[in-house]
Amino acid sequence: MSTSLRPALADLLAYLGEMGYGEVYLNPRKASAAVPAPAAAPVPVVPSPPAPIDEEAAGRIAELAALAGVAEACTRCRLAEGRTKVVFGSGNPTAELMFVGEGPGADEDRQGLPFVGAAGELLTACRGYLDRQIALVRPRALVALGKVAAQALLGNDAPIGRMRGQWYQVQGVPTMVTYHPAALLRNQALKRPTWEDMQQVRDFLRSGNL
Fold first, then answer.
1. pLDDT in tens, 63-86
2. Looking only at Cα atoms, what is the longest distance across the chain?
3. In the chain, what are the domain boundaries?
4. What is the Cα–Cα distance from 26 to 84, expressed in whole angstroms?
5. Could you point out which of 60, 77, 83, 117 has its C-alpha 20 to 30 Å from the C-alpha of 192?
6. Which numeric CATH code is attached to 7-11+55-207?
7. Where residue 170 falls among pLDDT bands split at 50, 70, 90?
8. What is the C-alpha separation between 114 and 89, in angstroms, rounded?
9. Under 8 Å between Cβ of 120 and 101
10. Strands 97-100 and 141-145
C-alpha cells in the first residue's frame, strides 16, 4: 500500500475491513497494473500532516458544532420521543469524502455515534440537518450507502442495483451510489461490486475529474 494514500482513503479501507472485507478486488481493466502483495509485513500507512485550518474553515467547523447542538435538542418530529441520543455526523469536519446512510440501529442510538453497530448505519437527524452538514463540510465527493440514502438524496425510487456504480450530483457534489454495509453482511456476492464502486471514488479523489 502506498504511503502517499490520502488519510480519508486509508480510513475508508479500514472501515471496509471492519465491515467484512477480507479481499481486495482489482478492476479487470487495470489488472495489468496490479502488483503482487509482498511476503513481508505490510508497510504502515503514514498519514499526511493535517492541513492548516484557515479562518473561513474554522467558521464552518464552529457552525457544525452549533448545528449538532440544535439537532441534539430537536423535538420537531416523533423520533424525539423514543431516541436515546441524536446521531449526528462524525469525523473530519473538512473531509474530502462523506458517507450518507439511513437511520441508526440500537448501538448508534445508545452511543450517539454513526457506524458503530454491525451494519454501520448512519442517522443525520432529519433532511434539513443533512443538507446543512453537506454544505458546511463541503466534501469533494459523497457516497450514498444503500437504497434509502440514495433515494432520499436523489429524489427517486429507482432500485439500488440500477443506481449503484454511477455518479450523480447532490448540491453540486459528485455522488456515488453503492450498497449499504448491512447488505454486504447478508450477501457476500455484493462485496465485489461495492469494492469496484469504491475504486471509482478513489480514482475520482486522486484525479479530481469525473
1. 888 888 887 777 777 767 766 777
2. 56
3. 7-11+55-207
4. 42
5. 117
6. 3.40.470.10
7. very high
8. 7
9. yes
10. parallel
pLDDT over 60 at 133, yes or no? yes
Where are the extended beta strands (E) located within the chain?
A: 97-100, 141-145, 167-170, 173-178
Q: Is the pTM of this model over 0.70?
A: no
CA–CA dist 86, 68 (Å, integer): 9
- In this predicted structure, the answer to whether residue 119 has a pLDDT above a threshold of 70 is no
pLDDT at position 18: 55
Q: Partners of 100 in the beta sheet? A: 144
Residue identified by cell 481493466 is: 29
Long-range pairs for 200-203: beta carbons < 8 A, 24 or more residues apart = 200/165, 200/167, 200/176, 201/12, 201/97, 201/141, 201/143, 201/176, 202/9, 202/12
Amino acid identity for residue 116 in this structure: V
Q: Which residue do the cell numbers 488519510 mark?
A: 7
